[in-house]
Amino acid sequence: MRKKTLPVVAILGRPNVGKSTLLNRMASRMVAIVDAMPGVTRDRKYVPARWRDRDFIVADTGGVGIEEGFLASDVERQAFFAAEEADVIVMVVDVKTGVTDDDEWLARKLKRLKRHVLLVVNKVDNQVAESEAGVFYALGLGDPITISAQHGLGIGDLLDEVVELLPPFVPSEEKPEISVAIVGRPNVGKSSILNRLSEEERALVHEEPHTTRDTIDTIVERDDKDYRILDTAGIRKNRGGMDDVEYYSSVRTFRAIEDADVVLLVIDAGEGPSDHDQKIASKIASRGRACIILINKWDLIEERHKGKEVMDSLAYKFRWATHLPLLRVSALTGRGLDKVLPLVDTVYSEWQSRIPTPALNDFFARVKDKVAPPRKGSRQLKMYYATQAGTAPPTVIIFVNDAGLVKADYRKFLERQLREEYGFWGTPVRVHFKTAGKDRRR
């Protein structure tokens, strides 16, 4: 189960009543995709919020109702998972539609949960709409709270009501937390892997691509350590033909990569590695994130006796990234997934590692003796001094007589030498050259 260190406020309602817009207002930032098309939110999404010096978690959920549709029962199950673990439930209705059969059905379901339920009437932005909100007393959930999430009206009053119902604050001991993003092409099994790691049905799983529309996250606790795992929408090869929701899903995915410490790049073993997988890995490296490659659906490959073919293809496609760890896993059977979080710990440690300055300079002295630095005409590169300027990823600055003498191949050579000496498994390594003062160049 998800670890509850803070009280949870769950937002429920039928599709397109403004739940995600309300989430953004309560969190005071744009964290959920908002679109007029019903069904954009399908999984439950947790985001931190703060009001009157109280911290809490807001859970956004997919729209629920009586009518059946694509993934309707799965969306409903996810929504009620959130409701059952919530301390306060915010049921959102739409003043423009009045009381619907879906509203009455949801109100009856929520009453059975024995939770604090606040009835919120959305899209109330004038006096006429205010007067029409009274019809929602019929739901039997007490006094309706009128708001306009789009215009920010009534949000403060709602939050006042929410914090009054929150349980007393109990401080908990802070634990280390590693942020892990799961990325890859659509339908490679990212949500299934999240569910295996979290040991609960945390994300919708369906063979139809684009089931996950927005980035969702959960906290997984292992060995007194927390992992914030971000499941993301699939990254399509081309942006052409994307609708607005798919485009912003892609944007959120790349934001999740930037927010992560470690990225799990999931590749479908049945399809094998693609050029697009290479590009995703390159984007992860360019953003300086540690990375692990997960080859999912390996159980299918073993049945077809094509393991060597897939591994040979991986070796070729990722010949530029031999430092990336690779795990063969199956979200269906659970194979190899027990190794994921321990490996996350390892590459996170490498990502944060630091080389003492004396050891680094001794290392570069040995490299210079082994391979002479490049020259241009009569001028030869001289390396005076090296220091590690930062971690996450490890970044080395070398002071030289003329940085213009450094070519890309020599930079890559030094990166390879650093990896051979110090490992840096799973993490990018940055090597920068800086020209020293003019007095040093003579």
What does this entry look like structurally?
The protein is of the alpha/beta class and 442 residues long. The protein has 3 domains: 8-165, P-loop containing nucleotide triphosphate hydrolases (Rossmann fold, 3-Layer(aba) Sandwich); 177-351, P-loop containing nucleotide triphosphate hydrolases (Rossmann fold, 3-Layer(aba) Sandwich); 357-440, GMP Synthetase, Chain A, domain 3, CATH 3.30.300.20. It is 33% helix and 22% strand. The protein has 13 helices and 17 strands. It has helices spanning 19-27, 72-85, 101-111, 127-132, 155-165, 190-198, 244-259, 275-286, 298-304, 307-317, 340-351, 357-370, 408-422; strands at 8-13, 45-51, 54-60, 88-94, 116-122, 145-146, 177-184, 216-222, 225-231, 262-268, 290-296, 326-328, 375-376, 379-380, 383-390, 395-400, 430-435. The strands form 4 sheets. It has a 6-stranded mixed sheet with strand order 2-3-1-4-5-6, with helices on both faces. The relative contact order is 0.09.
Helix content: 25-40%
| Biggest β-sheet strands, sense, barrel | 6 strands, mixed
Q: What share of the residues does DSSP label as strand, in percent?
A: 15-25%
Specify the structural class: alpha/beta
**Parts with pLDDT < 50 across at least 5 consecutive residues:** 30-42, 202-214, 239-249
Number of strands: 17
Q: Architecture of the largest domain, CATH level 2? A: 3-Layer(aba) Sandwich
How many discrete structural domains? 3
CATH superfamily of the largest domain: P-loop containing nucleotide triphosphate hydrolases
Radius of gyration: 26 Å
Distance between the termini: 65 Å
